[in-house]
From TrEMBL:
Biological processes annotated in GO: purine nucleoside catabolic process
Name used for this protein in its record: N-D-ribosylpurine ribohydrolase
Organism ancestry: Eukaryota, Amoebozoa, Evosea, Eumycetozoa, Dictyostelia
Annotated region (Disordered), positions in chain: 1-34
Keyword hit for Hydrolase: yes
Keywords: Glycosidase, Hydrolase
InterPro entries, alphabetized: CAP_dom (IPR014044), CAP_sf (IPR035940), Inosine/uridine_hydrolase_dom (IPR001910), IUNH (IPR023186), Ribo_hydro-like (IPR036452)
Organism per entry: Cavenderia fasciculata (Slime mold)
CC per GO annotation: cytosol
Family to which the UniProt record says this protein belongs: Belongs to the IUNH family.
Domain SCP: 458-570
Bias (Polar residues): 1-29
GO molecular function, one term: purine nucleosidase activity
Every Inosine/uridine-preferring nucleoside hydrolase domain range: 127-420
Listed Pfam families: CAP, IU_nuc_hydro
Amino acid sequence: MKQYNHNNTSKSHDSVVSTQQSFKKNQSNGKEENDTDTFWSFALIKNTVSIRSNYKDKDKDNKDDTVKLASLGGIEDYYFNNKKKGLRVKLIQQVEVEEEQVLKVESDEEQEQEYHSIYNNDKKERHDDAFAIMMCGHDPSLNLLGISTVVGNQTVEKTTINALRVCKFSSMEHVDIVKGAGKPVVRDALICPEIHGDTGLDSSIVIDVETKAPLPGKAINVMYEYIEKVFRETGQQTTIIATASLTNVALLFAVYPEIKEMIESVTLLGGAMTTGNIGPVAEFNIMVDPEAAKMCFESGVKIVMVPLEVSHRALIDSHIVDRIQKIGDTNFIKLCVELLKFFAENYKTMFGMEHPPLHDPLAVAHVINPSIFKTRHLRVDVECTSHLSFGQTVCDVWNMSKLPKNVHVAVEVDIDKFFDLLIDSIDKILTILYCQFTFGEELNNLVLKVDFNIQNHLKLVNDLRAAKKIPPLKLSKCLVQVAQNHANYMAKSNKLTNEDPEGGMFDRITKAGQEATNVSTGVAYGSYSDAGTVNQLNSSPSRDNMISETYTQFGVGMKQSSDGTPYWCQFYSNGQCQTK
């Protein structure tokens, strides 16, 4: 996985989105020491800023690269001209998506975009794969590192073309795609075009666009390179999202077993607790390569499984289609609707269901917001030998086998919140396309107003503490001064950092008139509101500041840089301002 640094003559983002340092004072010598080393938090950025990047190949020219930030809230898009390194939030990997021809994006110039990541999308339902990719690429809490494809409803050659086209028409050309396994680990490929058509992503709209080429090389080698690099440089683990067979993931674990410690989890759409969709008890993604699923389930890596019982609740009815149509009367929206209509017609023919389930985006939704799901930790084994039930995910609900539990199985989902996430991602793509068409490079000069209020910011933090029954923080004028000074420094240098020319954290609060034995800070950039920043920092380890009973005092500061980027600093301590 590649990370990219944002640095040009005016800007050098040496971290991603937010970072936290936590220190305690050594009581014996009064020196500062790291409590936990430096924490880098790649936080969920709700309603704030999403990161896009256009990467020019160094071997081709020396032109400036472009990183585009697109806000969920509307036309809050602008560009940074700089080199890349480092915009990582949570990784994702998927495997296989199928998209035949895509819409004409009449407004966009051709740009070579290579933002290296892994996102494996290997799913049977190729139309829902397209929507899963849109959610991955346009939800600001995720940094889509790439896509590896795999054989599924169609050949891997077709699924690779489809993935490239999906990224093209949904303003995601920066995402790297690599062709993965063309057959299961030990079985022959099972091609199943009945639902998604001969292309893997049929619709009444013929979409024909030129795309960039997939990355060269073997998928597992590319996946290992990207994941290992991120882990080596940042210490951050990767989340793999798999919406097709687990062939690529199983081969990755087999060839590079050391990578397991670099994986936070594998979140997959697949399996069934009861009835299957390709056999009496087998679900398609698992049945395509049950040996691969078995290898992953027994790997020791955390597995999250969203089965058919949950995905069959996410039905695309007329109400959802109407919501999508109301986003805008554009070719992109028309394409989304036509894809869903084709999917619905075939699903009704095959399964007799009036409305088709949108399977794959649920796996993405679990990574974005796991709180909308209820899961159970179960023992799950994969049947690989029986002619009657091979591909079955045998869920030991009553723990009768006494074997170690190995899979977190989703059993419920808040459907309304799930569709809110889906609609939001579609709306944001349309916003990006509109901005590209309307403003182009004029967005360089677009500076947005920041909604910043110290008292409101404190209330948002204390609301989080109240939910945990932790006493509220009190506003400290000393810490507000320190936080504002550091925000000013970051904005002036256009750099997200915990370092400050005024010294360490204890030095700074002492100069401001406060004595404390514990102090911590969190910094972030890119959010245009108090709520967005608190949400951005409300992830581990920055969340530890907000809900720590150690701290009693709070301060916050914000300053926009010359190009309009908001830089935020929170300060926490257990001290008191001294009367001078």
